[in-house]
Amino acid sequence: MAFAKLEYIWLDGYKPTQSLRSKTKIVKDFSGKLEDCPEWSFDGSSTLQADGSSSDCLLKPVAIFTDPEIKNGYLVMTEVLNADGTPHESNGRATIDDEDDDFWFGFEQEYFLMDPETKRPLGFPLNGYPEPQGPYYCGVGGQNAFGRAFKDEHLDICLDAGLNVEGTNGEVAAGQWEWQIFAKGAQSAGDQIWVARYLMERLSEKYGVYIEYHPKPMGDTDWNGSGMHANFSNEYIRTAGSKEKIEAVCEAFRPVVDEHIAVYGAHNEQRLTGEHETQSIDQFSYGVSDRGASIRIPIYTATHGWSGYLEDRRVASNADPYKVAARIIKTVKTVTG
Ligand code: ADP
Ligand code: MN
Ligand code: MN
Ligand code: MN
Predict the structure, then answer these.
(1) Cβ(106) – ligand 1 distance below 6 Å
(2) Contact 257/266 with Cβ under 8 angstroms?
(3) Does domain 104-336 match CATH 3.30.565.10?
(4) At what angle do helices 321-336 and 186-207 cross, to 10 degrees?
(5) Whose CA is closest to atom 23 on ligand 1?
(6) Three-state secondary structure string covering the chain
(7) Are 253 and 260 in contact (CB under 8 A)?
(8) Would strands 295-297 and 286-288 be described as parallel, antiparallel, or unpaired?
(9) What is the C-alpha separation between 215 and 226, in angstroms, rounded?
C-alpha cells in the first residue's frame, strides 16, 4: 500500500450541541497503527473553536479503525487541543477520569431517519400522521419499518470497521431506529459511538436522508422521543452482591440531578416529561425493571445476586457520550472510590 487515506474526525465548538467534522490526510507507507498517525491541525476559526487571529487548533489521534468504504482508508478519532497542547474547552474526552478502564459502558443510540423534502421522519406523510405508535417497535413490513436498508448497511459498515455494535432494533416511532455499542473503558465507548455516528452521517449522504438526533423531533405529540440510555458498571457494581450497595450507587445520583442533566443533551426537557417511558426532568427515581424511572436497575442485576450494571435512562440521543461518561464516573466514584 503506497498511499493511505486517514480520515481525521473531531468535534467542533458548536453550542449547545457539537457536530462532527472531518478531513482527509494522505500518508505514504502507513503502518496502520495509532502511534504512526501524525498530529495535525485545522482552522479553529471556522468551527467556533478559535479566533481568526490565532486560529490553529491541534488534532491528537486517539483511536483508529479501518474504513471499510474507502480504499486504503482509516478512520482516526481525534481530540482537539489548543495550540499549546492543552485540551480545548470543547474536548469532553479529556475530562474522563477512568485511567484503568474500570468502567464499562453500553450506549443505546436512538435516532430518526428524516426525509429532507418533508423534513419529517420516514413513514410520515407531508400532512397528518401515520398510524399511531404500536406496530413500529421491532416491527416488520412496509407499513411498519421505514429505512431498514439504511439501518442494515450502517450495521455492516460498523462491524467491518471493528466497532463493537451489540445489536440494532426498530424503535417505537415510525422512522426511528436504535443501535447499541458496548466497550470496556469510557474513552473507547465514546470513541466508538462518535465513529459510528460519523459513519451514519456519511451513509445518510448516499441515501438522501438525514439523521435527526433531537430528543423530541415530533414536539408535544404522542410520538416517542429519542434517547441514548447509558448502561454502566465498574468492578464495584459488577460484584456488589447486595441490594443496599446497588441502591447506594443510585442514591449518589440524587443530589446531582442538575449536573447530570446539564450534559445529557440539549432540549431534553421536551423529552423527559414523565410520558413515553421517561421520568420527568425535575424528578429522580430508580427501580428494578422500571422504564419510567431515571435509573433502571435491570432485572439481570437484581436476579444475579445484585451484581451487574445500571441504566441511566435520562440521557438524550444528542448527548456527547464522553461528557456523559465523565459525569457518571464522577458520581459513581463518590460511593465506590
Ligand atoms: P434495553 O433496550 O432493554 O434497555 P439494550 O439491550 O438495548 O437494552 O441495551 C443494553 C446495553 O447494556 C447493551 O449495550 C449492553 O452492552 C449493556 N451492558 C450489558 N452489561 C453491561 C455491563 N456490565 N456494563 C455496562 N453495560 C452493560
Ligand atoms: Mn435498547
Ligand atoms: Mn430504545
Ligand atoms: Mn434501554
Answers:
(1) yes
(2) no
(3) no
(4) 160
(5) 309
(6) CCEEEEEEEEECCCCCCCCEEEEEEEEECCCCCHHHCCCEEEEHHHCCCCCHHHCEEEEEEEEEEECCCCCCEEEEEEEEECCCCCECCCCCHHHCCCCCCCCEEEEEEEEEEEECCCCEECCCCCCCCCCCCCCCCCCCCCCCCCCHHHHHHHHHHHHHHCCCEEEEEECCCCCEEEEEEEEECHHHHHHHHHHHHHHHHHHHHHHCCEEECCCCCCCCCCCCCCEEEEEEECHHHHCCCCHHHHHHHHHHCHHHHHHHHCCCCCCHHHCCCCCCCCCCCCCCCEEECCCCCCEEECHHHHHCCCCCCEEECCCECCCCHHHHHHHHHHHHHHHHC
(7) yes
(8) parallel
(9) 5
The preferred substitution site among 107, 180, 324 for testing ligand 1, maximizing ligand atoms within 8 Å of CB, is: 180
265 contacts 137 by C-beta, under 8 angstroms: no
* Interatomic CA distance for residues 218 and 16, integer angstroms: 20
Q: Which residue type, as a one-letter code, is found at position 104?
A: W
For residue 308, the CA-to-ligand 4 centroid distance in Å is 15
- What per-residue confidence (pLDDT) applies to 1? 57
pLDDT 10s digits, 198-249: 999 999 999 999 999 999 999 999 999 999 999 999 999 999 999 999 999 9
Q: Of ligand 1's atoms, which has the minimum distance to the CA of residue 238?
A: 23
Q: What pTM, to 2 d.p., does this model score?
A: 0.98
Q: What is the CATH number of domain 3-91?
A: 3.10.20.70
Any idea which ligand is nearest the CA of 106? Answer: 1
In tens, the pLDDT along 69-87 reads 999 999 999 999 999 999 9
The ranges of the chain annotated as CATH 3.10.20.70 are 3-91
- Count of residues making up the chain: 337
Q: How far is the CA of 305 from the centre of ligand 1 (A)?
A: 17
| pLDDT band (50, 70, 90) for residue 327 | very high
